[in-house]
Structures
1.
Amino acid sequence: MTSAALALRRLPRPGADPDARPSLARLTGVELRKMADTRAGFWLLAAIGLGTVAAAVLMAALAEPAHQTLRGMLEVVVLPTAILLPVAGVLLVTAEWGQRTALATFALVPVRGRVLAAKAAAASLASVAAAALCLAAAAAGTAAAAPGVEGAWSLPAAQVGQLALYAVTGTLVGVGFGAVLLASAPAIVALFAVPITWGVVSAVAGIEDVARWADVDRGLAPLLEGPMSAVEWARAGTTLLVWMALPLAAGAWRISRAEIR
Amino acid sequence: MAPRPWPRRPAAPVLGAMIECVGLTKRLGGRTVVEDVTFRCEPGTITGFLGPNGAGKTTTLRMLCGLSRPDAGRATVLGRPFAALPNPGRRVGVLLDAAAQHGGRRGREALAVAARTMGVDPGRVDPLLALVGLDRAAARRRVGRCSLGMRQRLGVAQALLGDPQVLVLDEPANGLDPEGIRWMRELLRDFADRGGTVLLSSHLLAEVELLVDRVVIIAGGRVRAAGGRDELLAGRGTLVRAADEAALAAALAADGLDARRTPGGDLLVDAEPERVGRAARDAGVVLTRLGEARGAGLEQVFFALTRGEAPAPAGARRPVDDLAEAIR
């Protein structure tokens, strides 16, 4: 008997029922961990957190009192989340391909839809946490600035929900782009370039009336501005259908058929 | 679930072989990279899946592990398709490519993530790292800064993490030094002796020859030979070399012995060493080498396949016939 073989026998037992399917909650926890446990992932999330705090500090120190309200703060403080969290969503998927960890991931969880679902759930939870951070930073900034403006602290409950929805959908758009392209650089470029191109082309082509039903900037911005009208909701819905649901579905289809190498 | 006495393995419902590939076929980019590959692995054995680079080894293993969809045929592990295993990491330890780790993740973290995924006690991580010879400093290093040998050990640790019954390892000896290969041999031998099943691939026969007890040789996407290692090696004649090769060849021919030149420069003779020695003595030829061709048989096949000399067998065939043909 060799030492290695002996040591193998003396390892702690792995644990209960070896044929228990890992729950979606467990897989979601794993995906959340994978968002933050690499160098790139850690600094991306750290940049969002630091950027949010920095935005709040700058607003409290430098902004006009009229903008130092909770709502005014929130509009600025949300920017790091709005810009960078979708990138984290992209990387959550594409890193598996770029770094080839998909090989190990799908060898442990061969039903690929479960992995993608766990990634979407992890992206959503991270987004809700980011929205909470934004809210906290904006509140702290407002308290520090004490602008003395009428209604400085007024924030409709609906807007809190819309903030969370904005963050979640934005990140899921990133997940969708990542899943369709399965490569970090093209997916990140597309994430920023395609919606802008869409806006420009639609303006030039004179199809704005139709195009604005799928315009990421104008379609989703109302989520941050306050209670929305039915038309605004409808536009946000169609926009998300085009930019979030469609890529997610196409990506799921692609991943389910992909050769993992 | 009641605790089980160690080292008895939990019994999984198995019908038939632990690993079974039947008629596996894969076409990629209009080329058939794996064609009608059939073999099985039994408990307690270490099977070497051998072939030159590009022979279809990795593609076969990826199909076995549900990472690639076969165009025809089927592969099962523990009697079911890999994807039908509820928690495959606890039954099948897989290492398909040691380089396929996130470069920015620490080695220990990669293992902890895998443990979490399959619901394994995280207390196994550190002892396993020690077992595969990665100390604390190495385990804390980001994988991107680890040598291939270190990644290989990390990958083996990950494969063992779920205390599996089956190991599927693609080129596990790659990047290991001789000491590491010896270590791997002892580890896998013990694993198999306790009833485990190992399937490992290699493009270097010498690297794994002492490690495996069964052999499946693949080249050009097809299985060329399969069987027990010793059975494939047994009775394969004599290797002989002389200062004057022409004289030796003439002496052998005069004695009615078939001889064939090996890539190593020896003559492979289909006879016992004693008879070859006598023939040489009778002709007055000075021998510089004389010995049983143990191992040469496999090497012969391997060399022949590497150089694409093995004929593509048509119709029904016994792998052993191919082997014999490749040698003679």
Note: Chain A is about 75% helix and 0% strand.
2.
Amino acid sequence: MRVLMFGWEFPPYISGGLGTACFGLTQALSRLGVEIIFVLPHIRGRVEATHVEIRSAAEVIREAKDGITEFSPYLVASSFQNGRSFSGEYTARILEEVQAYGYAGEKIARREQFDLIHAHDWMTVFAGFYARRASGKPYIYHVHSLELDRSGEHVNKDIFEIESFGLKEADHIISVSYYTRSIIINRYGISPEKITVVHNAVSRREGREKFKVKKKSKEKIVLFLGRITFQKGPDYFVEAAARVIKVFPEVRFVMAGTGDMMPAIVERVASLGLGQYFHFTGFLQGEEVDRMYAMSDLYVMPSVSEPFGITPLEAMLYDVPVIISRQSGISEVVRHALKVDFWDVEGLANLMISALRYPALTEELTEQSRQELKNIHWDRSAEKVVNLYNRLCS
Amino acid sequence: MPSVCLYFQVHQPLRHRRFSVFDIGRGLSYEDEQMNRQILNKVAEKCYLPANSLMLELIEKHRGKFRLSFSMSGIVLEQLLRWRPDVLESFVKLAKTGAVEFLGETYYHSLASLYSLAEFRKQVMLHQAAMERHFAFVPRVFRNTELIYCNSLAAEVEKMGFVAMLAEGADRILGWRSPNYVYRATAADKLRVLLRNYRLSDDVAFRFSESSWPEYPLLADKYANWINQAAQNSQTVNLFMDYETFGEHQWAETGIFEFLRALPEEVLKLPEMEFLTPSEVVEKYEPVGELDVPDPMSWADMERDLSAWIGNHMQNDAIRTVYGLESEVLGRGDGELLETWRRLQTSDYFYYMCTKWFADGDVHKYFNPYPSPYEAYINYMNILDDFTQRVKGGEGR
């Protein structure tokens, strides 16, 4: 089995969960004997992964001397996608990029030998579509997130339309959760039989023990790590924190990440007079992320709409107990976490205080989630994907 | 002539309201009265009323040859008294037939036997008084919460004047021996022990409506045959289960009531077979051996140990905290505080915190009003925090 895969991120070109998920999935697929050609928008320097053959869309376009060859990173793309900070010019630009990536996809498809096309998220919809037209091979659209998750009701209509087009055209759809699957059915009108759920997983990293720091301060650290955008619910985090501080003042709230809601969030914290309890670290990378998890006593993911949400699993790898919103794919996978509806600020505060006050609760949560993590690995997800490959190719 | 000995447990916990950390110190009550009333009404209609009327019918039809026993917690008794006196009346009617025995237990369906023997004795006495008051019956046979049993407890129960105690017929205790005999307790010479035949009991309680079970559907004649086989060269086949099996765990649609209706006749048809209540069994038979149980065992889950109630950090923390309040609560000399503290000891609260989801998860989930054991623990600890403030602060709620 040889697969032509289209993505937008791949380590080290990575800004969110998409690149990490693509890496974990392709690694497990290659262990099952799947050969993968992985197309990225562009490559600077070397990609270390040896389990996939990397192709650069920009290079293909340069050779053909038609169209743009510079691509925006996913992070920028997704931060402007929020309807409330809409910038017409930039949108035109990303749509152009997506188009150009699509043409490159067609050219690559003509050159390569493969059995099947597997394309991740809306940016690769045209590439998947053109590649199928050029090759006649089946096209899988793998949905990691949707415009409706990212922007609520303030959707970018162009992106929504590209998604709808891809979902209708694709021969099959993979969604990262049942939560996302139901949005695809109900909001995009796609028939349920066409969608297979494959949950994400988490790769164990080596050497995380070294980050297990002994804390000097007796203050507890509560972590929010993710883009500070509408989708991630940072405002609910702040409102709950304000209630926690009244009951349990020996606490610090760390918000790690950037995004278009950052100014509003900082302002809200200031107007509540809670600046001394909050730290804003900006976007963290690599070892900084590991260290941040290791320092934390509690991880909170209050997402408004989260197709999957890999960060709680990462926190669990550091024995950090987690609170997650029920409006997330991860809540389908993880039992040993505290769960709350994102809008229930009081409920969230109650759980946060409980996790800070009752050591027996966090001990139990971490012990149980260590067991649980053993069953969440990419091999299991990859097996489901290979079964689907075989079905579509037979 | 071997016997069939039936015992049914009647219990409904008082479920708590959602109690957030922000509710602490606000003077709120702990119980969700509406939910408790709703559940009691549901169980009354689906189980207690139809099952009691069937039991009465069967006793009358077989002129007292059909005999059985109940153990009823004080917690459910109070709820019946308050909301469903008609159901209580139907139990009284059964008591008056002379074919029904009532067993002793802790009034609050608690785990006090493991944490405070003084408290345990008081709760058993409270329960005895309630049985005498409502059913004119003084219990002579004891069944501890969830059939928890061990040597030291048997000795304590003997001292309290009981002639016998019920326990689980666990393989690890019996080894090659059979549960279908009367045993003597180690360290309690006079106390007899009756052991649950868990295979035959669970055939009804758990497997009855399981269509994937090879024996499905289970009919009364087949089941009576199994009882007969088990009873060969034995003394007694002890079938112990929750009373809610009839109509609540196994819905009426499964045919459980038809099964129950036909069973006495099928059993009494067999040569040399009779129904006896627990105290009649121990009067009739001499013990065949001694039962040595150094560590507590119960009738729960595959493990038959205490891990469903005190198997994890949260459960241990919660139960130690509540029993840690004993001397302070007693010191206050306040009847209402004492009553509240005792109600907080009901074993179900700790059961809700059980994290053994994977092996025995299904049955736990069925009985759990909380979405997760973590929320059960948080809710309980918040309530306990509020209660502790009341005990220490000296203010009534």
Note: Chain B touches chain A at residues 20-22, 312-314, 316-318, 355, 357, 371-375, 377-378, 381-382 (CB under 8 Å).
